[in-house]
Design brief:
Blueprint: E1 11-17, E2 30-35, H1 41-49, E3 67-72, E4 76-80, H2 91-107, E5 111-119, H3 126-137, E6 141-147, H4 154-167, E7 176-177, H5 186-198
Parallel strand pairs: 2-4, 2-5, 5-6, 6-7
Antiparallel strand pairs: 1-3, 3-4
The protein binds guanosine-5'-diphosphate and magnesium ion.
């Protein structure tokens, strides 16, 4: 599928990885996508892939524990990380999530940045802040995205953003506000955050 007006010309789902030993061989610069379950991570990936349902969108948060690898333009991976912060997840599930995601983030040399997706209505909480801080600690670039702006007025979006800016550690790249649903802000995010990274 050729995408028009996008640096993403070709997308191919490669594999789901449940264990670090099954990681695919490293390609060009890799970008991962992280966020709390239900923030719209899969929806955002579909939006930037310009595909309706390549990435499964769930109405209910699941306990999916895999890293999902998408090969872009035959040359690098985008990686959909399992969502974090299930209130009801068993301790064993959380431990496994941590080992898989933390191991991947720490050890993957091709990985250059992590898109951190938050819900503009909720702002950021301690888990979100811990994620961004951890990425900075291990020298990965956090790219912060606030999704679901279609749910708030501009005034409320600005207030939520101001508060998040105070709570988050200093960012090299200003946060992006967008809606994976209406696609507002997606083109800007693609052009400023994604395309420079892969070109
Ligand atoms: N209103 C609104 N709903 C969204 C947006 N993005 C995702 N959703 C909805 O949020 C729910 C979770 O989306 P999904 O992409 O599966 O989230 P994930 O768990 O982070 O991968 C689904 O019902 C989506 O339709 C958005 O920008 N605006
Ligand atoms: Mg998802």
């Amino acid at each position: 599928m050729e995408l028009r007006d996008s640096c993403i010309k070709k997308v191919e789902f490669v594999k789901s990885v449940f264990s670090l030993k099954d990681l695919p061989q490293e390609q060009g610069p890799e970008l991962a996508f992280a966020g709390r379950s239900n923030v719209g991570k899969s929806s955002l990936l579909n939006a930037i892939f310009n595909r309706r349902n390549l990435v499964k969108v769930s109405s209910r948060p699941g306990f999916t524990q895999s890293l999902n690898f998408f090969l872009i333009n035959d040359s690098f991976y985008f990686v959909d990380l399992p969502g974090y912060g299930f209130a009801k997840a068993p301790k064993k599930v959380i431990k496994k999530w941590q080992a898989l995601v933390e191991g991947y983030l720490r050890e993957r040399n091709a990985l250059k940045g992590v898109v951190c997706i938050f819900d503009i209505r909720r702002g950021v909480d301690e888990l979100d802040i811990a994620l961004v801080s951890f990425l900075k600690d291990i020298n990965l670039l956090p790219i912060v995205v606030f999704n679901k702006i279609d749910k708030l007025s501009n005034n409320k979006i600005n207030k939520s953003l101001e508060r998040a800016n105070i709570l988050l550690p200093r960012l090299e790249m200003a946060p992006f506000c967008l809606s994976a649903k209406t696609k507002k802000g997606v083109q800007n995010f693609l052009e400023r955050a994604i395309c420079p990274f892969i070109e």
